[in-house]
TrEMBL record:
<keyword id="KW-0067">ATP-binding</keyword>
<dbReference type="GO" id="GO:0009898">
    <property type="term" value="C:cytoplasmic side of plasma membrane"/>
</dbReference>
<dbReference type="InterPro" id="IPR050625">
    <property type="entry name" value="ParA/MinD_ATPase"/>
</dbReference>
<dbReference type="GO" id="GO:0051782">
    <property type="term" value="P:negative regulation of cell division"/>
</dbReference>
<dbReference type="GO" id="GO:0005829">
    <property type="term" value="C:cytosol"/>
</dbReference>
<keyword id="KW-0547">Nucleotide-binding</keyword>
<dbReference type="InterPro" id="IPR027417">
    <property type="entry name" value="P-loop_NTPase"/>
</dbReference>
<protein>
    <submittedName>
        <fullName>Pilus assembly protein CpaE</fullName>
    </submittedName>
</protein>
<dbReference type="GO" id="GO:0005524">
    <property type="term" value="F:ATP binding"/>
</dbReference>
<dbReference type="GO" id="GO:0016887">
    <property type="term" value="F:ATP hydrolysis activity"/>
</dbReference>
Length: 399
């Protein structure tokens, strides 16, 4: 902790809300640029029927404004452009009342800065620019409306199940490259979980050895804890781990019912995103993970058979934590070959969210070498980035 953070350890941002005077506005926000204002209005505006109090001002102008009004219960402040953002927080503290809920947006993307604000200075939440509307709704909306985000386990990491309408449609390719992007570039703690316990394909794609601990964990779910996860998962990058088994097909064993739930709960405590590569026949452990996912991503090809299989996947009942329909991904797409996106959408009754181009032999070569296809700019990288944004794992902006 820096000297400045030590001085602010008793920040009045941390004062209980019960100490806050009652007669004052509920929310006011200040942002520097029109693009950020537009995203905030889209994400927060519907919750404020009488109008969202949002002003486009720089930090200095925001401080002057706040000094002349009764402090709202919740403030959103933009510290972009400030050379000394922690010092700026001292200046903000001087013009707000104790117990004010403070939400901050800025340009610094480091974890240490986030922790300084939220753990040491009492800021309720911080998001770096460029903002993403889904992330704003998830992280800012509860505070802005006077509530609080749900307690754990609901505030754990997101479980995203990636499923394929038939074998060979490229589920592991999509899952692995999505994991590379989220863990390696957006710097969110991510684990790639291969729910097929016999193939270990995710480990091959990420160039890490298969785990010997996953089977043992599922055989004794009561022993699953963060320490076991640390031992069983293999790091691919600093913030991307892989959990994939390669159990012999000749061995017969059955995971204990509830093992998938226990594993998912432990993973959500440790990671921001759990990307589960679901096999074509989601039975046993894979079925448990599929039922627990908040989001399902269904990957198809532009063929009649793939669309027919997709109908079966779409007919599966939604999991208890799933609040939206599956995200439909059209993979290995080539113009003038197979069905069009419009034909697929008409047949399935759901829009194609992302179209991924056919990478041909490059995909197989990258898998053999354990390399990612997103390292170079192009249509494939753009598609994976678009998917990351849809699941709330990447902010908006150019690729």
């Amino acid at each position: 902790m820096t000297a400045l953070e030590t001085n602010l350890a008793g920040s009045k941002f941390m004062t209980p809300v019960s100490a806050v005077p009652a007669a004052r506005p509920d929310f006011i926000g200040f942002v520097r640029d029109a693009e950020t204002a537009h995203i905030l209005r889209a994400a927060l505006g519907p919750a404020f029927p009488a109008g969202l109090a949002l002003h486009q001002l720089d930090f200095r102008q925001s401080i002057e404004w706040l000094g002349g009004i009764a402090t709202p219960r919740t403030i959103l402040i933009d510290i972009s452009g400030e050379d000394q953002p922690l010092t700026a927080m001292v200046q903000l503290e001087a013009v707000v009342d104790p117990g004010t809920r403070v939400l901050v947006i800025g340009e610094n993307r480091s974890v240490s800065f986030y922790r300084s604000l939220t753990r040491n200075l009492g800021v309720k939440e911080y998001l770096p620019k460029p903002l993403d509307a889904a992330m704003v709704q998830r992280e800012f909306l509860p505070w802005a409306t006077g509530a609080e985000p749900e307690a754990e386990p609901a505030r754990g990491g997101a479980v995203v199940a990636l499923c394929g309408a038939g074998g060979g449609v490229g589920v592991t390719t999509i899952a692995a490259n999505l994991a590379w992007l989220i863990g390696g570039e957006t710097r969110r703690h991510t684990i790639l979980l291969d729910a097929d316990l016999h193939r270990g394909s995710a480990a091959l794609f990420a160039n890490v050895p298969p785990s010997t601990g996953l089977r043992h964990a599922l055989e004794a779910p009561d022993r699953i804890d963060p320490l076991l996860i640390e031992r069983a998962a293999h790091p691919a990058t600093e913030r991307l781990h892989v959990l994939a088994a390669e159990e012999p097909l000749t061995e017969q064993w059955t995971h204990r019912i509830g093992g998938g739930r226990a594993l998912a709960a432990a993973l959500r405590q440790r990671y921001n995103f759990v990307l589960a590569d679901i096999p074509a026949h989601p039975l046993g452990f894979a079925g448990e993970i599929l039922a627990l996912a908040q989001q399902r991503v269904l990957i198809i090809e532009a063929s009649a058979q793939s669309v027919r299989l997709a109908q079966s996947w779409m007919a599966l009942p939604a999991g208890a934590m799933q609040t939206s329909r599956p995200v439909l991904i059209l993979n290995k797409y080539q113009k003038r070959r197979g069905l069009t996106a419009a034909q697929i959408e008409a047949e399935l009754g759901v829009a194609v969210a992302v179209t991924v181009p056919d990478m041909g032999p490059n995909a197989a070569r990258a898998a053999d070498l354990g390399e990612s296809l997103i390292a170079t700019k192009g249509k494939f990288r753009d598609a994976i980035l678009q998917l990351a944004r849809i699941i709330g794992a990447a902010p908006g902006g150019a690729a």
